[in-house]
Structure formats: structure tokens, C-alpha cells
Amino acid sequence: MSETRTHSKWARKVSVLAVLLAVIIGATRALADDDGPNASAQADLVKQANAPISSIFQVRLQDSYAPQFWDAQGRGNTFSVAVTMPLPAYRLLPFPQLSLLTLPVAVTLPDGVTGFGDVRFADIAVLDPGHSVLFGLGFTLVFPTASTAMAGQGKWQAGPAAAIAFLPENWLLGMLAQNPISFAGDRKRADTNALFLQPFATYQLGRGWFIRSQPVLIFNWKTGKQVVPLDLGVGRVFRIGRQNVSVFVEPFWNISHDGPAPRYGITLGAALLYPDFWRSR
């Protein structure tokens, strides 16, 4: 009985989110046509909305639901809020910086426990902006803010980060790499040292529509384990009044795993885009 109620709860949640996303996408034809940006500006917004660390201010909402796990019974869900905060040249350094703060607001584990996760922050200094190839170096931090032990790693972590992106015509191609390493925290918890690789690819279909893929590959240097997912999604950038918005839906599958990991799932995302954030200040 309890299992049936849990399944119904998650099914209703995913259904509501899917319906809302479908309504938003379907309703944007007229909105986008009435007061949308020109083709060039819209194309740039599509690229920025799908870059893991972008050069415009954004507030991103993302929900990932996994109905089935490898090596674990139950379902999982992660709802996160992320903020990208670019800093123009000479605000702190003589070159632009791209920052990403990720807050895992609600992490639901297969056993049904829900809690706040570990906060993550990354900052990349862009070394060669304004060209069709961008490259940056920086750092990544992980803060042990999880409210339950299983929702986080219990360790303060820091490490290098790097990003590269190619922007040919309708494409956005690149890679974001982060390798946080534990240096303090709960002594009873295992030390951490893992490489997070996030290849990203976006192709623009026109009128704000796009297809995208952004799997996060995890390689644990301590245990030799890895998680390798594949995903493919579709979305659109449009305007509601004067507000630029991006939405997407993206199913995923884990083709390689060690230990508990989702078999498959679906990610729904929405972002508020502010391309003129610094110009108004």
C-alpha cells in the first residue's frame, strides 16, 4: 500500500511538471512572435541558456526524476536551483569570469528520505573571449551542507575546473570539467576525489527551438568507479512579456555504473535569462 502511494505521488508530480512544460512551450508561439528578440539575439540566447556556465545572468530551476535504480530499491528525485553570475572584465580580474552556484534544494533518495544536498560553486576565468573558440580555467568548491548523510558527502572539497566551447553557426559544443578533492570534514566519511566531465552539445532548429545533450560523467579516482549517462532533450527559448525564458525536457539513461545509480529518468528545466543584467548597472 505504501509503495503504491509513493508511486502515485511521484507519478502525479512528474505529470504536473510535464503538463506545465508542454503548456508553456505550446503557448509561446504567439508570445515569441509578438515581442521576441531578433534572430541573431535569439540565437545567442539559445547558446547562453544551454551553456553550463554562461556569460549572462540566469536563474535555473531543474528537476530530475529517476523511477528506477541500479543496485537499490525505490525512486529518486532531485530539485535544484542554480544561478549563473558572470563578472565583466576588471570587476575582480582583468578578464571575464563565469560563476555557477548550485543549490540542491530537495534530494529524495530511493529509501524515501528527502533533504538538502551539498552546495556547489564553480568559477571560470575566460582567457580568450569574443571568438568562435572559448577557453577558461578556474576552481570548484563543494560545501558539506547536506541535511542528511546520504544526501551529501560530508566533506569540504576544492579543486581545479576548466571549460572549452566551440560556437560554429547553429551549434554549441564544449566540455566543462571539475575535480573537487576533499580536504576537511567528517572524519568518519570517506575522502573524495572525483572527476566530473560535462560534455555539452546544442543544435538550434530555429524560432528558439533546440535539441541538446548534457550528460554528467563521474569518474571516482578513489574507488575506480564511474557513472556514464546518455541523454537527449528538446526545448525552446522565448519571451513572456519582457522576460526571456528557456525551458527543456531531457530523458537520460545510465549506460555504465558502479554501485547505486539511476537506470533512467527525465529532467525538466526552466531558466529566467537576463542578458542585459550588467548593462543596467
What does this structure look like?
There is one protein chain. The chain has a 16-stranded antiparallel β-sheet that branches. The longest helix is centred in the N-terminal third of the chain and has 34 residues, at 2-35. It has one domain (2-274): Porin (Beta Barrel), CATH 2.40.160. Strand 14 (233-240) and strand 15 form a beta hairpin. The protein has helices spanning 2-35, 39-49, and strands at 57-70, 76-87, 97-108, 114-115, 119-126, 133-143, 155-166, 171-178, 181-185, 194-206, 209-213, 217-220, 226-231, 233-240, 243-256, 261-274. It is of the alpha+beta class and 281 residues long.
Percentage of helical residues?
Answer: 10-25%
What's the shape? globular
User: Helical region count?
Assistant: 2
Judging by the overall fold, what is the CATH architecture?
A: Beta Barrel
Précis, in short:
With 281 residues, the chain is of the alpha+beta class. It is built from two helices and 16 strands. A hairpin with a 5-residue loop joins strand 12 and strand 13.
Task: Describe the secondary-structure layout.
Layout lengths: L1 H34 L3 H11 L7 E14 L5 E12 L9 E12 L5 E2 L3 E8 L6 E11 L11 E12 L4 E8 L2 E5 L8 E13 L2 E5 L3 E4 L5 E6 L1 E8 L2 E14 L4 E14 L7
Antiparallel strand pairs: 1-2, 1-16, 2-3, 3-4, 3-5, 5-6, 6-7, 7-8, 7-9, 8-10, 10-11, 10-12, 11-14, 12-13, 13-15, 14-15, 15-16
